[in-house]
């Protein structure tokens, strides 16, 4: 679903004019005033939510579905690397989702989290 939203955002209106970095000031509607940028930002939000769900799935499966003889000390390095990666994702993705949510509310509901003319902080 996230890829479909991202691809459909390039077909709506003028398309996403932010490039592959999505770097221009996105909190105001001056640069991108069409719904295409909102769809692209929402697709990033959806991709983050699915990554968070997959990370929790990996962690729960790894710690609950092991055989009784497989202790944590006897587990190979690959599952440990997956566990550490998913733990980092579980810690980082909610913060990024909060920032993307604030960006979407800045664009659609006239809040000023990132707009300095409304008292917001661009580096928040």
Automatic annotation (TrEMBL):
Top EC group: translocase
Transmembrane spans: 42-65, 77-104
Sorted UniProt keywords: Copper, Electron transport, Heme, Iron, Membrane, Metal-binding, Mitochondrion, Mitochondrion inner membrane, Respiratory chain, Signal, Translocase, Transmembrane, Transmembrane helix, Transport
CC annotations in GO: mitochondrial inner membrane
EC number(s) recorded for this UniProt protein: 7.1.1.9
Superkingdom as given in the UniProt entry: Eukaryota
Cofactor(s) listed: heme
InterPro entries: Cyt_c_oxase-like_su1_dom, Cyt_c_oxase-like_su1_sf, Cyt_C_Oxase_1
Signal sequence interval, chain numbering: 1-18
Function summary: Component of the cytochrome c oxidase, the last enzyme in the mitochondrial electron transport chain which drives oxidative phosphorylation. The respiratory chain contains 3 multisubunit complexes succinate dehydrogenase (complex II, CII), ubiquinol-cytochrome c oxidoreductase (cytochrome b-c1 complex, complex III, CIII) and cytochrome c oxidase (complex IV, CIV), that cooperate to transfer electrons derived from NADH and succinate to molecular oxygen, creating an electrochemical gradient over the inner membrane that drives transmembrane transport and the ATP synthase.
Residues covered by the Cytochrome oxidase subunit I profile domain: 1-124
Entry's family note: Belongs to the heme-copper respiratory oxidase family.
Organism in which the protein naturally occurs: Eurypylus koreanus
Membrane topology type: Multi-pass membrane protein
The protein, known as: Cytochrome c oxidase subunit 1
Subcellular location per the Swiss-Prot or TrEMBL entry: Mitochondrion inner membrane
One term of GO molecular function: cytochrome-c oxidase activity
Single Gene Ontology BP annotation: oxidative phosphorylation
Catalytic activity reported: 4 Fe(II)-[cytochrome c] + O2 + 8 H(+)(in) = 4 Fe(III)-[cytochrome c] + 2 H2O + 4 H(+)(out)
Cell membrane recorded as keyword: no
Recorded metabolic or biological pathway in which this protein acts: Energy metabolism; oxidative phosphorylation
